[in-house]
Design goal:
The chain is of the alpha/beta class. Helix content is about 25%, strand content about 20%. The strands form two sheets. A ten-stranded mixed β-sheet has the order 3-4-1-2-6-5-9-10-11-12, with helices on both faces. A two-stranded antiparallel sheet has the order 7-8. Helix 2 crosses helix 4. The chain is globular, with a radius of gyration of 19 Å.
């Protein structure tokens, strides 16, 4: 865990929010990024992440940052997600005293999601490193960031991405059997199999060395592809890792299970903790759905991302995730 901040800053009643374009040599066009932070005072309020399906979170647009230095959290969305899809998480972490920097990963974000491009894990990780470069080279932001308290957080494919930033390497030939053995392809492999991606022979970039030594701790929520984790890379990850699985055995997706019934990743890493939140399932990380959202999804024959297991409360799931992350980074 990371040392606590010495003193609390005076902040506004809502977090600040802004956007930036990240220039990166590995991308042909700028990477869309967002930054949440403790605000010094109000500007105008706008909802972030609000749409026909999901409830957004209000923030002060472009507000000045509160005085002080804050821990920085890099945030990576899952396949087909986007940086504002975790507004519920980013807003609360900013209110608790963190700066949250997120990006839209081209090729695996909302409206730009390709089964083939999604598998370029090294490129995804490089997006976050490039965003970190730009923010730390901008005194307007870097003056308020503690460089010794940088943590990465990711969900699903984003969890895989941040594990790569921690130094985990993935075998491009390591996923074929895992997908064949999956009892329910909807819960892991069908996105790729429907596009006839050869899961037994993935791109070289899938196994790239993406380690960023500026990052001192990692939180991966339901990370995918850990079946392909290279054993020789695991022992080299000495920084603390928090693994969070959503759901007990009856609802936990087998493709993201890092416990003893899955890849047992928590036991194989030198400094890892695994927490389980239940009742829940993989979709419980997504934003709170508006009334009628489930019906809209059903009409469009889309994934049931607004349906939670019996007894689950998405707001309570979110609160547990927020609290566990805040405890891990000592907010």
């Amino acid at each position: 865990m990371i040392a606590p901040l010495p003193g609390a800053a005076q902040t506004a009643d809502l977090p600040g929010y802004d956007r930036l374009d990240v220039q990166a040599a590995h991308r042909a066009r700028p990477i869309a990024a967002s930054i949440w932070y403790p605000a010094a005072g109000p500007t105008f309020v706008a909802p972030v992440g609000d749409n026909a399906l999901f409830e957004g979170r209000p923030a002060y647009m472009g507000a000045a940052m509160a005085e002080g230095k804050f821990p920085l959290i890099l945030l990576s969305h899952g396949s087909g997600g986007n940086m504002d899809g975790a507004a519920w998480l980013s807003a609360e972490l900013a209110q608790r005293g963190a700066v949250v920097l997120a990006v839209n990963h081209q090729g695996s974000t909302s409206g730009d999601s390709s089964p083939r491009r999604t598998l370029y894990l090294g490129t995804r990780a490089a997006d976050l490193s490039a965003a970190l470069d730009q923010v730390m080279n901008n005194p307007e932001f870097s003056a308020h960031i503690d460089p010794d308290r940088i943590t990465s957080v990711g969900f699903s494919l984003g969890g895989t991405t941040v594990l790569g930033l921690a130094g985990m390497r993935f075998d491009p030939k390591g996923m074929g059997n895992a997908c064949k053995e999956s009892e329910d392809p909807v819960r892991g492999c069908n996105f790729y199999q429907n596009a006839k991606v050869n899961m037994a022979d993935l791109p070289e970039d899938f196994g790239a060395d993406a380690r960023d030594t500026r990052i001192g701790a990692t939180i991966a929520i339901d990370p995918g592809f850990t079946q392909a984790a290279r054993e020789d890379s695991l022992s080299l990850i000495s920084d603390p890792v928090l693994l969070i699985n959503l759901g007990a055995a009856d609802t936990l997706w087998n493709m993201v299970d890092v416990g003893p019934n899955g890849t047992d990743l928590a036991a194989r890493l030198p400094n890892a903790t695994r927490n389980v939140i239940a009742p829940a399932d993989h979709y419980g990380f997504l934003m709170n759905c508006k009334p009628g959202a489930a019906e809209i999804l059903a009409e469009e024959n889309d994934d049931p991302i607004c349906d939670d297991p019996q007894g689950a409360d998405r707001k309570q799931i979110h609160q547990q995730i927020i609290d566990q992350i805040a405890d891990f980074v000592n907010l």
